[in-house]
Request: fold
Amino acid sequence: MEMQSARSLAATPFYAEQADECALFAQAHAARLPLLIKGPTGCGKTRLVEHMAARLGRPLITVSCHDDLSAADLVGRHLISGGDTRWCDGPLTRAVREGAICYLDEVVEARKDTTVVLHPLADDRRMLPLERTGELIPAAPGFMLVISYNPGYQNLLKGLKPSTRQRFVALGLAYPAPEVERGIVAAESGCTAETAARLVHLAEALRRLTEQDLEESASTRLLVMAARLAVAGMPLQRAAEAAIVDALTDDPETVAALHEVLAAVL
Ligand code: ADP
Reply:
């Protein structure tokens, strides 16, 4: 399936902590509780999960959810090959059997029928019912369900149902504090401390302007991209235009306003 990736346990990916989220993640894992990570796009949700999976020594199976993703895509389906029908586990089922961490990114995008399989896994039962085969699979030790979503204004309507939400320990992430974010931008791009500081300063100004009106804001991811362009030799102003300002919106008026901020602060 194209939308999933499995990562084995190599080096621990770099993650700069915002507060106590690493301890919270580890404690939720130890307590066999599922975790909901909410926060804007590009603020470090995925990196936190990758980092903690490596630290906890668990394989990680990630599924990027989209509006066509159904329960069958998660649990598996019968496949016909050469006249034979055989069952093929989906990513969630593999994670449950292997005791992996299963990360469902942007879970509110998925079809509503996915909640039917998530609920019994996310409460005390820790069971995955496979309706098609009649199997009821207990989650192997070490299994953890992690879901994320971006509570931007477009998601307010489709949000998570309270019955789903209440099964999860919630962790809210925002953009990192300036000193943390400067360290991230420098570490992820190899840029100088000065470049990192200028980009973070720009981000603060852009965020003040965009957070109200735009679904997306100048995320840490975009800052890292701009810094990488700068490291590759692009003038910083042009790099910030290409990676941050023009990436954020197509609306000409907003683009013009963002360009003004850029010219003023960078
Ligand atoms: P999200 O899943 O919230 O959309 P990601 O975790 O993919 O965001 O973060 C986007 C990029 O920003 C990462 O690839 C990484 O380069 C950088 N990043 C953001 N936050 C952190 C952090 N706390 N530590 C290290 N890198 C980070």
